[in-house]
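Cross-check.
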Amino acid sequence: MVLIRFGIGISSALLTVGVHAQNVKLQPSPSSVPVVTQAAQRGAPVTKVAFLANVEKEFSAMDANKDKKLSKPEIEKFRRAALERQRVARSINLFNRLDADKNGYLSREEFSHLAAPIPAINVQPLMTRADANRDQQLSEEEYRASATGDFDRLDINKDGILSAAETTGVKSPAGNR
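Predicted model, tokenized:
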């Protein structure tokens, strides 16, 4: 009796399933969760200065053509890439949980559907909320003003620090809301 083992490989950031003759080491890509969100999830307080530094870093990462404005396609591309990284990481984690004998392969008994589709990207709520001059682009000032408003709204006790309790379930400024 021949046991056919199924391995998983990563190709062009997409998970593909195939038969492999050797072990495959799977590692998730670096986290796409903002440092501020990570700190809040650990229960560490987040100052407004740290929050705004993260906003500027995120804006810069989204501004692909470095024109200090975010277009819908730039925001969509950024979100799509972040969602893809999250999907791959979830799939790798699922694979690792399903690989009961930890041999780097999924047997027929261990095999199941591994990858979830990326949800549709809708940047219109962000554009509606943040695009003050309605030119269908976000300037750095518009993006920062929107994010500052978000910080102020989340800072329930108005102490200039976001606590874990205040940020529970909060997505990044460019996240789907």
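The first helix runs from residue 35 to 41. The mean pLDDT is 75. Passed to J.P. for a second look.
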